[in-house]
Amino acid sequence: MISENAAMNELLAFQRGTEALSSIAERLSWDQETVMPRGAVEQRSEEMAAIEAVLHERRTDPRIGEWLELAVPQTESEERIVALIARDFGRANAIPAELATEIARQTSLGQGIWAAARANEAPQDFLPTLDQILVLKQDQGHALVRAGFGSDPYDALLDDYEPGTTQAEIAALFDAMRPRLVALREEILGAPDQPEALEGRFAQETQMRLARACATAFGYDWSRGRMDIAVHPFSSGRWQDSRITTRIVETDPFNCIYSTIHEVGHSSYELGIDPDHAFTPLGRGVSMGVHESQSRIYENQLGRSRAFTGWLFARMTDMTGGLSVPDADAFYRTVNRVTPGFIRTESDEVQYNLHIMMRFDLERDLISGRLSTDNLEEAWNTRFQRDFGVAVDRPSNGVLQDVHWSVGLFGYFPTYALGNVYAGALNAALRTAVPDLDDSLQDGDATPATEWLREKLQRHGGLYEPRDLVERATGRPVTPEPLLAYLEEKFAGIYGL
Amino acid sequence: MISENAAMNELLAFQRGTEALSSIAERLSWDQETVMPRGAVEQRSEEMAAIEAVLHERRTDPRIGEWLELAVPQTESEERIVALIARDFGRANAIPAELATEIARQTSLGQGIWAAARANEAPQDFLPTLDQILVLKQDQGHALVRAGFGSDPYDALLDDYEPGTTQAEIAALFDAMRPRLVALREEILGAPDQPEALEGRFAQETQMRLARACATAFGYDWSRGRMDIAVHPFSSGRWQDSRITTRIVETDPFNCIYSTIHEVGHSSYELGIDPDHAFTPLGRGVSMGVHESQSRIYENQLGRSRAFTGWLFARMTDMTGGLSVPDADAFYRTVNRVTPGFIRTESDEVQYNLHIMMRFDLERDLISGRLSTDNLEEAWNTRFQRDFGVAVDRPSNGVLQDVHWSVGLFGYFPTYALGNVYAGALNAALRTAVPDLDDSLQDGDATPATEWLREKLQRHGGLYEPRDLVERATGRPVTPEPLLAYLEEKFAGIYGL
Predict the structure, then answer these.
(1) Which PANTHER family match (chains A, B) (predicted)?
(2) Range of A79's domain?
(3) Cβ of B222 and A37 within 8 Å?
(4) Out of A19, A263, A292, A363, which one is annotated catalytic?
């Protein structure tokens, strides 16, 4: 019989190993998306499968159950660590092994089938696969409910990405936001004076120099990170090694710049966590929503502010010898331009959340069985027409545009909008706490914002539940009001509403 | 009770996982030496420890013993796979767990202590650590002997790097080589007409373009590899992903060029192995000696040949607008210049093996206890004076120059010279089989050599024991004669001996 202390120590040591192996798996994915030779796909797939098998075995290791029964945590941190390990262990063991294997198999195939169907504008090539994945995810949701994780399969799935939040809470937030965002969108698009687009071509080298300058402006720690080019920008890793990626579109330098600032937000969060939490479940961002709040506040509330874009205008003018827009005020309007469009990832601060809301409603209906995959495309197009006022012209601009469902990510979409809500709340508190922030931003220095966010939120890692963490940082309950007020005020100014 | 077939299948499946995880660990090391942020050292150390712990557990997993008892291999490949797994399993289990842990601990510390001692020219700061490592390696050797792996601790250690070869065999080779190499070296250094050195500075970009052209000339498959810069060049990985590194010294482009060609040799071997062997013990180079034979024949017998250097001279002249040497003949002599020097890694084809021979003799005496670490520096300096005719001027040019012993690599050095002997034998057979090889080499195309080596040697991976493999490829017993004859003829021509 092992003692209570021994059980706690063994649990922590075992978890350290699991966290380190999980970090390795993430580094392999980074490698695959940035530097891996293109001919290494099969090999990498087998390597990933091997380390995922080790991780799955560790996460369901029966010794964890024994240690959990005996372990007596001594501190608040240890209590939270034990609770998080217990939750992961319970969730992992709730899924029958055959179901877990089948989900892994189908979702690894799903992405390729989706990509081909999207390229061919052929939803019928993808929907049967989606249907199989959907059934598996429904089964997963039911298995989790039976094991006591949530009262509803969708809530149980959501809990993987945003622990402690329910679809009812999210639906209430979204219901409050939707009419005001639809109205704001209509006003903006109907305004007589529309901002101009940025014209010209921007060399890769220039864009990368700008991106580096922006990352530095936001306090990105280059000694613990690096920047590479990827097809879809992402950030990867934590503690002493959190890397970012960006992409280059020759005619659209904002793609590179704001992807960079967005990923710097994610990485700053991971790099800002108290090093004492490293290799414990507290040593990473607590949820997708909170993560997204960091990337979004960096990208939007700070990065697209009048103050920061003033600095950016000067830098870009210096580096390129002159832009197509005449001055910093026009540049600010250009950066924040709202235009009609089908694609979520290309949309602006106003329309983005509307994209999310329709996906949230559709995927809840899919999981509950109220909507079948046979009717999904029609449901998508109907809803898009209603919220955006235009008809979807082709599947790649509609139901086939996102990768998420093809890899089994049901319950993930709402965390993007939740991140925006959190970012709005944090921005209001930040601006009160650091009233002269714009003075720094206009000099290309966002570090006072990073410092406040680090102190109030980032350093805690997984110590508090997501919403609790945001409420501790802002000192008030989370509501969509700060985000909506910010958007209405900002875009009224830009569009003369 | 599992059936024979089931045992074989389970053994192979388990081994696939182990091979994949081992490949991941190697990829992490690549990352660390090339792209990892400098601030990530502690984190990476914990990650490496975690995956090494998993690998150690798998290599000693008692189920392997059960499967080995029952498994019935059906083919020659399967027989060899089972034999290799059994050998690794036996060797891993021969080392007591505490000894394995202590070796891992001491050798992970050893490198840092060695590097500091070398920087400070202070052998006394390193020798106590070396002594601890030596005792552990002696213990390891004795443990292996007790378990039936070799009749002598040094042989048992050597077997990790060059399976099936004994120190007696190596000593016999070296005894035959040493007098002729010492004599050749003296003749060369005494010759009246010495080649000139290459003068000038060569930009990093130019060197990298040259290095890429050389790698391509040797048939390096860029779709399954890439090239980066590292402090100490190395190659890493296999099957679909074998990467090389090189280094840049502004005043010495040959460093970059020949490091590249050397590493292309290693990588070509790994990339040339029959894909059917992937993720089995046959799916990698069979020994360090055979590996080195590939890197050396690419670098020296082919890369420093008159034919290839003629092409290289033209390329370098094109890219730089003119070199300090007047023509291709002078350039060939410059590339193959022999000068006195203390450092193994900077030495030429003639002197390199002499450096190895003294290390081989010294480390055998250390492991057997005939030489103590207290007397090591004196023994080194005495031997160096005898073989090279000059006195060592400082420890970093003498006993502290190599990292190997500090990380526990006893028995590794002789594989470098063995590689040269194998390369000499392979080159003689290659030149007979492909008599017009120089016609291709002078056009910057070494692929006929790669094709022959692939067919005769590389594709077999671990299928045959090292010496057997080389003898199958050349059709005759391994002797140092082809290497010595090649060196004597080549340098007689260059130095007018």
Answers:
(1) CARBOXYPEPTIDASE 1 (PTHR34217:SF1), METAL-DEPENDENT CARBOXYPEPTIDASE (PTHR34217)
(2) 4-94
(3) yes
(4) A263
